[in-house]
Amino acid sequence: MQDTSPTPAISTRALTKHYGPVRALSDLTLDVRQGEIFGFLGPNGSGKSTTIRTLLGFLHATSGAASVLGMDVGRESVEIRRLTGYLPGGIALYDSLTGEEVLDYLVDMQGREPYRRGELCERLELSTAVLKRKVRDYSRGMRQKIGVVQALQHDPELAILDEPTEGLDPLMQQAFYRILDDLRREGRTVFFSSHVLSEVERLCDRVAIIRAGHLMAIHDVPELLARRRRRVTLRWRGVAPDPTSLPGLEDAEVDGNRIIGTLSGEVAGFVRAIASPNLEDLTIEPASLEEAFLEYYATTETPT
């Protein structure tokens, strides 16, 4: 039977990049689906930027294969870069040009019309007066805004963004998140690296965890959060029951009429099991991606 599933926006198979004895990336295999926001998560030095630069043809893989928008990264990197929106980490701009001149210059290099420039500049509060100023006078946050606009102004089918909110203040981060939400609704694909766990939790459909150049796991974000043990506090009328009688509760401690412990199982089943007229209050602290991520790193060995 013929495979009719959509071509992945990004696909890698055993993608490997070594710098002499340094193994920056080892046997990376993943697929990024069309129309999703995919987070590439790991600490600094884990291989995120190496992966992105290899996907765009700025680096040549030591071994393995990869395709972007159905094109081979080794043979068709120029066309990949033309069709893809790219924001590099720590973007460097031409200080002698104005913001507008930088955007025009990059449009000319890419050869595509800046359909979304006006909308993006408005949403990121880049006024006409700001765009007429020399880049040398820009703050770090203003430079990052220009970087975001240049990556998205030609309305690419795929955006590859390396630490995109670096340098943005909280208000501009929220504006950026809303832009990505709109792109997803329009069917665009976004692949972005980050070590800011809260924004991955806020934005992503799926997340890959990379550590020391090795892919540790790929999860739907809700699935990754479900792995996290939640902290539970129960307060009872009168004497608290024996905590061993409460299914799913671990590491429980009794403090007067309170029981404090952790829950690793399903929340709904736990709530049904503890239902009692003597239960006065229940607090279940929501799992955060940061806690799930740190726990995952603490319990998972890096492949050798």
In short:
By secondary structure, the chain is of the alpha/beta class. It has eleven helices and 14 strands.
- CATH topology of the domain at 10-94 and 153-221, by name, is Rossmann fold
What fraction of the residues are assigned to beta strands by DSSP? Answer: 25-35%
Measured distance between first and last alpha carbons: 38 Å
Helix fraction, binned, reads: 25-40%
Largest sheet: 6 strands, mixed
- Count of separate DSSP helical elements: 11
Low-confidence stretches: none
CATH architecture of the domain at 10-94 and 153-221: 3-Layer(aba) Sandwich
Q: What is the gyration radius calculated from CA atoms? A: 23 Å
State the CATH superfamily name of the domain at 10-94 and 153-221.
P-loop containing nucleotide triphosphate hydrolases
Shape designation: globular
Give a written overview of the molecule.
The protein has 304 residues and is of the alpha/beta class. Among the domains are: 10-94 and 153-221, P-loop containing nucleotide triphosphate hydrolases (Rossmann fold), CATH 3.40.50.300; 229-286. 33% of the residues lie in helices and 29% in strands. It has eleven helices and 14 strands. It has helices at 48-55, 77-83, 99-110, 117-123, 128-131, 140-152, 170-185, 197-203, 221-226, 267-274, 289-299, and strands at 10-19, 22-32, 37-41, 63-68, 71-72, 84-87, 158-162, 189-194, 206-211, 214-220, 230-236, 249-255, 258-263, 279-284. A six-stranded mixed beta sheet has the order 6-7-8-3-9-10, sandwiched between helices. Strands 2-1-4-5 form a four-stranded antiparallel beta sheet, covered by helices on one side. Helix 7 links the parallel strand 7 and strand 8. Helix 3 (99-110) runs parallel beside helix 6. It is globular and about 75 Å long. The mean pLDDT is 88.
